[in-house]
Amino acid sequence: MAADIPPQLQNQLRQLQELQQQAQVVIQQRGQIEAQLREVERTLEELAKLEAGATLYRSVGSLLIRVKDAETLKKDLEEQKETMDVRLQSAKRQETRLRERLTSLQRELQAALGGPGEG
Predict the structure, then answer these.
(1) 63 by DSSP, 3-state: which?
(2) Which of 51, 59, 77, 100 has the largest count of CB atoms under 10 Å?
(3) What does the pLDDT look like over 9-29, one tens digit per residue?
(4) Distance CA 98, CA 103 (A)
(5) Predicted model pTM
């Protein structure tokens, strides 16, 4: 059947598959960023509930390191949250662009193949 499809359509089908794969990767990345962001937000919430002078530990790899300065930890977490917010917005924009391109390419292919939506 591939021999029956003109080279231009074959190329568009390849592009469609590549866009679908890219979209899946971006969606997975967005999910990971959202999970990390929720974790940082929960940590900041719990940090705000602690009494002054409470003993804090930070996870570094498989170690727990005692934190001597809670304010520095809080600032680090807030900076990390801001960075993740920017990354999340970027991933959402990229996902939107990919979805738009996918929709457009699908319409082009449907029209070229005489599928639904034509006319």
Answers:
(1) strand
(2) 77
(3) 889 999 999 999 999 999 999
(4) 9
(5) 0.79
